[in-house]
Amino acid sequence: MQGTSTKLRHVVLFGFKAGTSEARIEELVARFRELKNSIPEIDSFECGVDNSPEGLSHGHTHVFTLTFPSEAARDAYLPHPNHQAFVEWAGPLIEKALVVDYWARD
Would 15 be classed as within a structural domain? Predict the structure, then answer.
């Protein structure tokens, strides 16, 4: 349900398979970031590495947040050929993934 914000957040958490090199992870981050430039429906992209002292990440180490102006924009992004190519390329590196979408509330 849409809140008072007009921004839809798409949050993706990844945990990588054992043995995945830092270089491959950096390449994944760069490829994910590049989607912002090739898929016009994405308003913004940000990412980071978990540094919580709580120990509740359940193996997820990297967080990506994409912002969309609408559910229609998000729905256009999901099957977009560039997104699907990224998913296919990244899949063999990922041990676990978690995706949550929500309307940001002020």
Answer: yes
What torsion, rounded to 10 degrees, do the Cα atoms 26, 31, 37, 43 define?
-80
Is the Cβ–Cβ distance between 38 and 87 less than 8 Å? no
Domain of residue 15, residue span = 9-100
What CATH number is associated with residue 54?
A: 3.30.70.100
Between the CA atoms of 9, 69, 90 and 32, what dihedral angle is there, to the nearest 10 degrees?
Answer: -100
Q: Is residue 24 part of a domain?
A: yes
Please identify which residue in the block is written with the tokens 């940001």.
Answer: 104
Q: Can you give the pTM of this predicted structure? A: 0.91
- Mean pLDDT score, 34-62: 96
